[in-house]
Amino acid sequence: STFEDTLLPFFLQLNSSKMLKFNLKVHLHRKIGLLPAVSFIIGSVVGSGIFIAPKGVLMNSGSVGLSLLVWALSGVLSLFGALCYAELGTTFTKSGGHYTYQLETLGPLPAFLQLWVEFFLIRPTVTSYLSLAFGRYMVEPFFAPCAAPTELIKLVSILGVTFVVAVNCWSVTLASRTQVILTLIKTLALVIIIIPGIIALAKGKTENFQNGFEVDLLTLDKLPLAFYNGLYSYGGWFYLNFVTEEVINPKRNIPLAIICSMVTVITLYVLINVAYYTVLTPAELLLSDAVALVSAGLASVIPVLVALSCLGALNGSIFGSPRVLFVGARDGLWPAIFSMIHIRRHTPLPALLLLYPLIVLMLISGEIYQLINFASFSRWLFVALVTLGLLIHRYRFPLHPRPFKVPLVLAVTFTVVCFFIVGLSLYSDPWNTGRSCALTLTGVPVYYLTVHRFRLPRSWRRIFSNKQLQILLEVIQQEARTY
Questions:
Q1: pTM of this prediction?
Q2: CATH class for domain 28-400+430-453?
């Protein structure tokens, strides 16, 4: 027999004896209460976007008034989507978010494509975007007013993402407590930026808001990109649904956490943009890639707070996304190694570690605004498919228990707007969105070759069931049903 065939049974037997001794089974435990859930959403949403995306929103909307309107409408639209996910999270009590809801409502092919783009496109792109923002805010203050070296920014970004991956590999509790602390810090950062702007506005500094709704620079092809930047800054409201099986009393805490956190975020975002425009002219804002550095008076404190804010969003992203791959592998739609859990730490260690190289590769090769447009097409396409699936499921199964039910008009509005923005983005930025669309479609033949019916040579199966890696990482399959 081979080395792994001999060692793996011994490894599993040893693990079983340890678990019996303590009367425990290896599975993901429910450790996320209401406060961590609210912190998880706010911490995932409020990241780098609100400090970097204002430039993109203004650049593509063309005026101060329209940009504020885009921020408000993006928040309301995100709230509609979050309420749809609150219904889905209480209807289907399994983790996995987008993937699970598409599997339950639309079938295995869309669900597999979600896993495909989540692993190869969305997660590496989103995480590298957040990491680059963290690196920029950490490095730029030391080189101001000169530009910071790009290589140094990327090095610090890699260190940041490595730290977050290590925390999430080590302990769910540690990752959850880290998220609460970082959420409090980033809320403090927003308040520090908002207060001087509101004080200046109260003193009559309103010249930047005069003629705020000029539409001379507005073009139809750029407007979807303005909403992309706004929606991207609100992105993250769905991360709690990725970890449903780890939320205490999810039928109560998921809707409550989503509503409380989204109302808070919308209020903070609108106020901080008003503060930006109070102290900065539109031309000054367009000249800065890191708006908070030049908008606040506490120049030595703000960069650190904003960098920690980005780190919090990064922690939320890395905490939630591997659970999508974990659930997909547990269902048989993704390689089995991703469904393994560490025998002592009870974390989805393989899913975390196997994502890490792709994140670093995307981080090294990417540019921050290209990354937003590149990831947004697939990300919002699948969000639209999820809410479309919600409408289809309601029609097909009207008597299915739904502890929380969103008004139908909100679900329809959100779905239509998402499909409209996704479709129009192909015209606005055909290169990046076209590449994103093409990469998504490459998952179709992979599905039929490996999932629908395995048509590859038998020797290739070892790639999808790596026993050596399982032994090295000390991971096994989940031993208890958690949904």
A1: 0.83
A2: mainly alpha
